[in-house]
Amino acid sequence: MSSREQIMGSKMVENLQEELLKRLDAYGESVMDSKDYDERIKRAKIAKKRKVVQDDEDNVIGNPNVKKKRRKKKRVTETGNLPNGIHEEEEGAQFKLSGKEKRKQELKDELGLNVMEKSEIENNNGVDSTNTTSKNSKVVVYERPKSKKREENKMDFIDNVGDSSTPLIDLKSARLDVQKFGIKGFSDEKKDAAMESLLVKLGAKPKKNKAYNYKEYQAMVQRQKVEEREKRELDRKLGYKVKRKVVAQKKDRNDVGRVDGQVGKYKHGVQFVTRKDLQPGGKPSKKKRKKKF
Prior knowledge:
It holds the Pfam family FSAF1. By secondary structure, the protein is mainly alpha-helical.
């Protein structure tokens, strides 16, 4: 080896030694200063985590479940433990959105339109979200609007019925009034009879029949018969048709029913006898004629 090469090698060694000494001095100072040391450790940990996350994302591109879990963890750390998972649902909806819809959602969040929409929905549903007991907890009061309206309508109807001067119409009373008004147009005799029948229908006891003496009653019946006979003769003279009274003749038990003495009827050389033929005074049986078509 030449002298030049030896000189160059010695210079390189000196330079390395100087650099090592400088670094050792810097390291010693960092150890002495605890605050600077803690900050450096935090930075190193964060850098290490970032590297691990990047490596995991590169390795787990086709596994969506892992990504979802990580997103949930991020949401929990950012929003904190909120009741009913309100913010989680909203952020989940933002992750699902893409393109123009995502941009619209971001603009709404910036302008505060989402908060306005929520307040309107709560007011419509009858939810009072202003009552708060603490920063994290809320008291929600829900009131059913339909049930209130129904109760108010019922109360109004009852009040109107109670205050109304016109009474409710009863069909029975209206029917009675109509019948009474109709009876007023009858004559005196018919009016009394109609009123009696109406009272009997309403539940009154009917009037008892008039009691007559037996001899008087017989004379009255005979008088009625004479009047009917005179009326019938008058009608016959005037030319009207008058129906004769059919008087049922009494049968004599000793009466001989048949002149020829034939009992029953013959058919194809056979004699047919019934109970009527065997009775005394029975009529001879009539032969039935066949209808000619």
